[in-house]
Every structure is written in C-alpha cells, then in structure tokens.
Design goal:
This protein is an all-alpha fold and 58 residues long. The chain is built from two helices and no strands.
Length: 58
C-alpha cells in the first residue's frame, strides 16, 4: 500500500513539473488518502497483535 502512495506522489510531482495542475492535485490527494489509510491499518494491526499476544515461553 505504501508503494501506491509513493507512485501517486511521483505522478503528482511529475505532473506538477509539466504544468498539469489538475492531475497533480488529484494525484496528491489520492496519495494523501492512501497514506493515511496505511497509517490507520498499521495502528490497528499493531493493536490487534499487542492484545492477542501470547505469554512468553519459559
């Protein structure tokens, strides 16, 4: 998922350099949404793994 974010960020930068501001804005918005979705899923995954954790073996 983080790969998609970086891809849309690169598309936004390249489109901005060539003057396609509409495409650059849309790609940057998509990258931002995917990045925050990645962060939310990461936090949920960390919490689930912490709560489900097993007792350490002796």
């Amino acid at each position: 998922m983080l790969d998609w974010t970086l891809m849309f960020l690169v598309v936004a930068i390249i489109a901005g350099l060539f003057g396609f501001t509409g495409i650059a804005g849309a790609a940057a918005g998509i990258a931002k949404i995917i990045f925050f979705l990645f962060i939310v899923l990461l936090v949920i995954s960390l919490l689930v793994n912490a709560l489900k954790g097993k007792a350490p073996r002796a």
